[in-house]
Structure formats: structure tokens, C-alpha cells
Amino acid sequence: MGARAGARPGRPVGAVTRGTTNPNRLRRMDRWIAAELAPALRRADPAPVAVDLGYGAAPWTAVELHGRLAAVRADVRVVGIEIEPERVAAAQRHARPPALTFRRGGFEVPLDSGRPLLIRAANVLRQYDEDQVADAWALLRGRLAPDGLLVEGTCDEIGRRQVWVALDRGGPRTVTFAARLGGLERPSDLAERLPKALIHRNVPGEPVHAFLRDLDRAWAAAAPYADFGARQRWIATARAVAADWPLVGGRDRWRLGELTVRWEAVAPGNTR
């Protein structure tokens, strides 16, 4: 990727992010990760390692990620990685080695040994150009353990709306849309949180635009369910959309305000 050009040996790959962060901002993403990765976390030997890449000006997201994954696998280790040395230094008072540590680095994902089962990169690629995304994904996927997962996406400042792509070593697998349903006027409100690979593709003729259009139509048709609450309306919306789009998961995930679709259905350049 462009950030690698001219990089010196030992120099982190990437650019410093804005660093904006808030406690509990990534709870929806973490909840999905803990469920999706649970089998791999439990069977990992030795203890699995997860990376919070670009955690920002404060280490809250790394601290919370450890707590949520430790509920599945008690000896999981989380490494928070940041390019900015001052952010790494400030995070050290929250470290609890070996369970939770912080170090300087970038897309090269420097670890003392082994490969991570998870790399979470939230609100990191937002500042990059769209044509840099594929290279960034390739670098990160190349660092994963054989059954590892890269989760890359974007959320608002307090985590009410989030969209992320899940990738394994072979490439992107799914896109997940997640929201606090009580404050959602229409599903396409999530468009502003699309990951960099998709946000500029929300235009007529692109599949992600068609997907959001169909979500809005199903949401409008499900308006009578609003009398039973926003959750029931969302479930009815997902059930309707599943007739035409390859959704992953079912009611148990939908009731949490999530909806996951296979990547190939919304990938840029596909026709719909």
C-alpha cells in the first residue's frame, strides 16, 4: 500500500489516526466477534492472541476487547498496537502482562511470536484512499493465524451505528450492519458508517446501494411491527430481505440489531 512506500526497516507501516475513542464504543463489534470466534478461541493452543490495531488516543477499546474475549477464553491475550509513541506510553498503566499489553506498530502487526487469531481495525482505514484498502487488507490478512479473522470497519462516536467487513486469510467473507434500533429512522442511515471499501460505492448501480435500498423498502413494509417494538420490526425486515439476499445468521443475531450479508453479494463492481 502507499503507506509502505519508502518505509525504513523497523518503521511502522501506516499513518497516525485521529485517535478519537470512547468507552464502550465497539461493544456491538466485540459482541459479534466473541460469538463468531468462540469455537476458534476455545480450541486454540497455545493461548490465542488478539490485536486491537489503531486503538487511538486512549486504550479503552483494547481493555474492553480483552474483557469480552476473556469471557470465552480466560487466557486470551490482547495486544493493543498504535503508531503514535505517546499513545503507547500513555496506555502502559492499563497493561496487565501477559493478558493485555501495548506496543508501537502499524499494518505490519509486530508480535513477539506467533500469529493473531484476531486483528480488529476499527476506524483505521477511514482516512485512507479507497485504492489503498486492498493492500492494507492483504498485509493484515497475511499476519493472521490459519483460522484467524480480520475485522475492519467503522462506527459513530458512541457506537450506536457500526458496519464492518470480516476477512479470513483468503479474503473478505461478510459485511455486518449493526445499530441501536431505538434510534434508527431507516436502515440506510448506516450508509455513513460503511467501511472505506464500500462507502464510495453507495450509488445507483452498485450492489451495496441496492442492498440498502431493499433494506429500506422492507423496513417501510414492516412498519406495523413497530407497535411491538423496533426489534420486532428489524427481525421482520431481515426475514423479508433474506428472500433475495444471502444473509448469514438468523433471528438470534437479528434481535441484537445485527444483519450480516455475504461479501460477494455487495462487493464493488458486482451487478444487481
TrEMBL record:
Annotated spans, Disordered: 1-22
Keyword annotations of the record: Methyltransferase, Transferase
Entry GO MF terms: methyltransferase activity
Gene Ontology biological process: methylation
UniProt key word Translocase: no
Stored InterPro entries: SAM-dependent_MTases_sf (IPR029063)
Keyword Methyltransferase carried by entry: yes
Name assigned to this protein: Class I SAM-dependent methyltransferase
Lineage: Bacteria, Bacillati, Actinomycetota, Actinomycetes, Kitasatosporales
